[in-house]
């Protein structure tokens, strides 16, 4: 009977994990710890599945090889926490879950787009202080708005369909335009998209070409009334430049579900320390024109089930000597 170790397991994943183990007659051991802190559990494991935002330390890869692992799987779409070169040097096949539920993130981004168009960061901030005036809060209806999507892949394309159904004008920027989105997305340049969008929504993978994709020069191209939604990865946006743009009125607002340096913050309780050890994120959190959420765009019933099932399917296939569609080769 194959035995698979799953690390960084949350309580909400346990039902899906247990159901899979029973249905496939395999043993799955789980730990809330990250992989580097669970290496002692590899002794009798045949495969390993992780989920973490911080990098897997370099010393872990040869240990996986020594323990007879053939693979390392992340049950997330992003795989930047895995050093592909080191994994491959140690004979490890790397897989991810690129399409656990595009609707989960797309629906979350749509919600945030609505919130920015309706000025809810400012409304909530003012109302919490007892200020119920309307000045400066006139909103745009979605069918009168132009929404720019940077990264029109599975998630961005799903968002485009939702926006199109609501009558929004959808601009898209992607290095690989999709013909099937003709009539739904108007593909354009990054500059033109930033110039014309009322809200810009980011849906790109994190890689060397997407890091710092938006900096001060890009914010300067946007309307002063425009908002930004980031439901992709934190380092896609230069945080210091974004803070400056938000504080000086270069752009109006931002809804951030992911930020650089989020690993020790999100899914943690910081009520006692108020994020004092994380000044940039603390500043974003305190700005009245920012909605900060803890990387939960993915977090739906369907997505969690699919992330568990797909990751486990791939591990079993690799252990059986089969190829998998979700292998990350480069």
From TrEMBL:
The Gene Ontology biological process annotation of the record reads: L-serine biosynthetic process
Is NAD included in the keywords of this UniProt record? yes
Sorted alphabetically, the keyword list is:
NAD, Oxidoreductase
| InterPro entries registered for this protein in UniProt | D-isomer_2_OHA_DH_cat_dom, D-isomer_DH_CS1, D-isomer_DH_NAD-bd, D-LDH-like, NAD(P)-bd_dom_sf
Residue ranges annotated for the D-isomer specific 2-hydroxyacid dehydrogenase catalytic domain, each copy included: 5-329
The family classification in the record reads: Belongs to the D-isomer specific 2-hydroxyacid dehydrogenase family.
- Can you name one GO molecular function term for this protein? (S)-2-hydroxyglutarate dehydrogenase activity
The domain of life for this entry's organism is Bacteria
Domain D-isomer specific 2-hydroxyacid dehydrogenase NAD-binding stretches: 110-297
The protein, known as: Putative D-lactate dehydrogenase
Species source reads: Limosilactobacillus ingluviei
């Amino acid at each position: 009977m194959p035995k698979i170790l799953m690390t960084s397991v949350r309580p909400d994943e346990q039902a899906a994990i247990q159901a899979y183990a029973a249905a496939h007659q395999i043993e799955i051991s789980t730990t809330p710890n990250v992989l580097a802190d669970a290496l002692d559990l590899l002794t009798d494991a045949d495969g390993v599945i992780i989920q973490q935002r911080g990098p897997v330390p370099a010393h872990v890869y040869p240990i996986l090889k020594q323990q007879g692992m053939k693979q390392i799987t992340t049950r997330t779409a992003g795989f930047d926490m895995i050093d592909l070169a080191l994994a491959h040097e140690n004979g490890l096949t790397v897989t991810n879950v690129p399409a656990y539920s595009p609707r989960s993130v797309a629906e979350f981004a749509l919600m945030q787009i609505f919130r920015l168009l309706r000025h809810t960061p400012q409304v909530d901030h003012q109302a919490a202080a007892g200020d119920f005036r309307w000045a400066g809060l006139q909103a745009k209806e979605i069918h009168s708005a132009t929404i720019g999507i940077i990264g029109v892949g599975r998630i961005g394309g799903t968002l485009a369909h939702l926006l199109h159904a609501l009558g929004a004008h959808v601009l898209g920027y992607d290095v690989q335009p999709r013909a099937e989105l003709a009539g739904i997305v108007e593909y354009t340049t990054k500059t033109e998209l930033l110039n014309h969008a009322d809200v810009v929504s980011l849906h790109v993978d994190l890689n060397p070409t997407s890091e710092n994709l938006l900096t001060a020069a890009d914010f300067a191209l946007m309307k002063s009334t425009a908002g930004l939604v980031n439901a992709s990865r934190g380092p896609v946006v230069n945080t210091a430049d974004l803070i400056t743009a938000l504080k000086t009125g270069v752009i109006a607002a931002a809804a951030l579900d992911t930020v650089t340096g989020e690993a020790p913050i999100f899914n943690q309780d910081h009520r006692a320390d108020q994020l004092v050890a994380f000044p940039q994120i603390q500043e974003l959190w305190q700005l009245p024109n920012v909605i900060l959420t803890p990387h939960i765009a993915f977090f739906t019933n369907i997505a969690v089930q699919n992330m568990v099932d797909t990751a486990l399917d791939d591990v079993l296939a690799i252990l059986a000597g089969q190829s998998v569609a979700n292998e990350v080769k480069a």
